[in-house]
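Hey, resending since the last one bounced:
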Amino acid sequence: MTGIPSRTRSRRARRRVAGLLVVWSCSVGACAAGRVGEAGRSSPLGAVQALFDALEARDPDALLALMDDGATVTALRRTPDGWRRSTRPAVQFAEGIASAAVSLNEVMRDPLVRVDGPLAVVWTPYDFFINGRPSHSGTDAVVLILDRGAWKV
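The structure tokens again:
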């Protein structure tokens, strides 16, 4: 990347990570160290917070424990030509988080939760931090299902 200032390269890297977290499709949260208590998973919001905790811990097993088999992570990123969408299986997402060379932290702001039987949606603005510094803000839309008493993405 010769000729591109390091600040620009850094912004591009943050945008790539940011794009991964905009939309979660069919997935739920886990807590650090892979242990999600029933209290955390007994509510959709608790499950999403557990997912953010697993993300911060870079724990792929905890992330996957909170996701339904076949879950995907869809990211939307604004480009000069419009919106770009990418979808990855949860396993690929978890592997990418585990191999991140930086610390990641996502913080919800004013989440909105809607539940209808075994289906829930958590829609929330968020702030994302890389190595403790603000990276970007956005909106998450997380779809969850109730599976044997625990909410899963």
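The chain has one domain: 6-152.

Sorry for the duplicate.
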